[in-house]
Amino acid sequence: MRSAPRPLDLARDRAALLQLWEVTLGATWPVHADALIAATPLGYVFETPDKLVGAIAFDESGAISYVIVDPSWRRQGIGRALHDAVVDHFRTPPQWHLGGQRSIWPGAPTDLLDADPFFTALGWVMGHTVVDMSMPTSDFRLDPEIPARMAAAGVRFDHAKEGDANDVIAYESREHPVWVPYFRARFPDEPGSVLLARDRGRTIVGALLIDLPPRHRGRWSRILGEDMAEIGCVGVAAANNNQGIGTALVAEATSIVKKAGAPVAFLAWTSRITFYERLGYTVWREYRTGTRPLG
Q1: 157 and 37, same structural domain?
Q2: Are residues 85 and 156 in the same domain?
Q3: What pLDDT, in 10s, does the model give residues 205-241?
Q4: Distance (Å, rounded) from C-alpha 240 to C-alpha 238?
Q5: Whose C-alpha in 37, 160, 167, 182 is 20 to 30 A from the C-alpha of 26?
Q6: Segments forming the whole domain that contains residue 30
Q7: Residues 273 and 158 in one domain
Q8: What is the pLDDT of residues 40-79, one digit of tens each?
Q9: Which residues, other chains included, contact 49 with Cβ-Cβ below 8 Å and sequence gap of 6+?
Q10: What are the beta bridge partners of residue 204?
């Protein structure tokens, strides 16, 4: 067995990494290969002469995507060795955090009971809980008062068009800069996946993304169904908060998902549980965020 982890080489290690995930988490967190690879921008692996027995994925921002160790090789320091390899990867320590823009999870899943003790022992400070939420679209009923209130306030919803790119990116840059890469990626090929809220002057006051099948396959579609849809990056301009626009925007998106025939609407990475519960969403999975102090 190797005495130290080595850098992940996806061209060489792809099949073995997928097999390791199946052995480690396939029963509870089955994931499609393309989703796992997308959540593995960088990594280190630990191997025996026969197979991979551990892997860690991360990105250059210091976001840890996942750490997995073959159950038959646990309690032998492999997870710690992988973690230390990532720490040593950076000449200048980053802002460490569990979960990032390309991570498989937004934190440590609470159903993986070893996760909190593992990270705590390595100097991480576990934080608040965030969740994924979902709803069978057959359960969704649009309250007619929601669109009526928006109409009275002069707020309208429409799908973005290719010519809206600059306005959308300017809005996100001002209001939700962390989401800019997600919205920028929708132009010019997929502007219709951006749902906008506009005021009477046609100014953008809210936006979100809708991923519909079959063009988009949900990360957890092996659990929730191959024809699930996802709603994400839900945001309203700060000056327009507390006017019901966010609720109406998500209600409109959920109606679109239902009309498209997707049986499940999925919302990833939120702490606004009560907000979404008002529309019928329920918590699907929970995660603990985490940071690691510098030094």
Answers
A1: no
A2: no
A3: 999 999 999 999 999 999 999 999 999 999 999 999 9
A4: 5
A5: 182
A6: 6-104
A7: yes
A8: 999 999 999 999 999 999 999 999 999 999 999 999 999 9
A9: 1
A10: 198
